[in-house]
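Is this the right way to post structure tokens for a design question? Let me know if I should format differently. Anyway, here goes:
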């Protein structure tokens, strides 16, 4: 049996204007696919599409707004794979003890990565190929809880359970997730380079691979799951060995 190919397939990447999502779109195009980029900022979508070239298209979408998500999929029609990398991890770093939680505000933690993903899947179903796939994104905090990160951990873990449930619910469409560790996305650009390097060094010193990942390295995990025609309900951890120590 020949290896599965993305040649001629259509990949929708929500969160594809930067970071891991952009790297997924870029690599999918290299393998002969067309990429549809969705992100909340129209200008960033336009810039990403220009960088990706003629095999790319896209439009703005607010995954917190059902009407916006519905309109996005109506606009772009049939496709083969959905990759969801949209997220707002920086907003989650202000964790606090459970006794101090602002519960109404805490609901927002799930707004993009969990509820946004579920909204995307709800409206993508009618347009995705039965032989296609959906790949979600969580984070290693699901496996490495720490003080002050109750909401982060719960949300990331919920995505993994959502992945398994949807793999059963939506079969034969395959549903998987990637669980990245520390990745050098644009989020880090706001930290001066010397401080950034020192912070990353401290955070990764004990890891088997003591460094942060390039977005392209993590994107390879998504590409694998797009092609992995006998894998569903799986969570692929790409963390440089962080969860081993």
């Amino acid at each position: 049996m020949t290896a599965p190919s993305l040649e001629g397939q259509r990949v929708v990447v929500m969160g594809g204007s930067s970071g891991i999502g952009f790297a997924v779109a870029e690599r999918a195009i290299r393998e002969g696919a067309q990429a549809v980029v969705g992100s909340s900022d129209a200008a960033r979508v336009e810039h990403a599409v220009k960088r990706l070239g003629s095999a790319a298209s896209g439009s703005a979408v607010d995954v917190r707004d059902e009407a916006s998500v519905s309109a996005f999929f109506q606009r772009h029609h049939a496709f083969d794979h959905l990759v969801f990398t949209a997220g707002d991890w920086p907003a989650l770093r202000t964790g606090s003890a459970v006794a101090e939680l602002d519960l109404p505000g805490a609901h927002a933690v799930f707004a993009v990565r969990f509820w946004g993903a579920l909204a995307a899947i709800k409206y993508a179903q009618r347009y995705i190929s039965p032989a296609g796939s959906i790949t979600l994104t969580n984070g290693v905090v699901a496996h490495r809880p720490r003080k002050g990160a109750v909401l982060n951990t719960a949300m990331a873990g919920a995505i993994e359970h959502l992945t398994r449930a949807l793999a059963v619910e939506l079969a034969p469409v395959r549903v998987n997730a990637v669980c990245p560790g520390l990745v050098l996305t644009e989020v880090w650009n706001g930290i001066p380079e010397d401080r950034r390097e020192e912070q990353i060094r401290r955070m990764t010193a004990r890891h088997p691979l003591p460094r942060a990942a390039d977005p392209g390295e993590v994107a390879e995990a998504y590409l694998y799951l797009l092609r992995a025609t006998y894998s569903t309900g799986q969570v692929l951890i790409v963390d440089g060995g962080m969860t081993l120590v």
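Format looks fine. Someone answered above. Worth noting: The longest helix spans residues 150-169. Strands lie at 10-14, 34-39, 56-60, 79-84, 128-137, 174-180, 235-238.
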